[in-house]
Amino acid sequence: MSENPYLLERYKYILDQKKELNKTTFIIAAFYQAVLVAILAAQFSIVKGVADRSLSSDLARLGSWGLFWCAVAVSAICIAALISGLFAWLNYREDESEIEVVAFGKSRKPVRFRDALRWYESYIIVSIFFMVLVYLVALYKIVLPLL
Predict the structure, then answer these.
(1) Quick check: 68 and 135 in contact, CB under 8 A?
(2) Is the pLDDT of residue 62 over 70?
(3) How high is the mean pLDDT of the chain?
(4) Which of 47, 69, 107, 129 could cross-link to 97 by cystine, CB 3.0-4.6 Å?
(5) Is 89 helix (H, G, I), strand (E, B) or coil?
(6) Separation of alpha carbons 30 and 97, rounded Å
(7) Rounded distance between C-alpha atoms, residue 90 and residue 124, angstroms
């Protein structure tokens, strides 16, 4: 590979980009956690406002549903960002494989669908779906009956 400096630089670039995608995944997860905590804190404030009688029940229901839909929107944005990162990673992996074929005569095994079980992005996406579901159930079973 050292015989072709362009190929070496391209390979380094691809590896750097894959590292950046990994960092970005954790930034997205941290962002999601922070926003979800803020939404749940606001939900708690709504319930507390109804308990203190400083907020009407109708306004509290509207606010609760508004917060839920904000959580759904943030979840959708985070999932879209994670999925686009996965597609970018797959594209970089394809480029990496092409360079490996040129440099070494063969490439590592191609990515299979079941490899998704080893990616932490998959588990973050499943966790986001789970959190939205838990929020919806909690809204129906716990929060709305209190209002």
Answers:
(1) yes
(2) yes
(3) 93
(4) 107
(5) helix
(6) 31
(7) 18
pTM of the predicted model, to two decimals?
A: 0.89
H or E segment and range at residue 84: helix 57-104
In single-letter form, the type of residue at position 26 comes to: F
pLDDT for 110 beyond 60: yes
**Is 52 exposed, middle or buried (CB count within 10 Å of its CB: 0-12, 13-18, 19+)?**
exposed
Give the model's pLDDT for residue 143: 92
**What's the rounded Cα separation, in Å, for the pair 113 and 122?**
11
From the number of C-beta atoms within 10 Å of its C-beta (0-12, 13-18, 19+), residue 40 rates as middle
Q: Six-digit token pair at 88?
A: 């970018």
Cα 32 from Cα 12, distance rounded (Å): 30
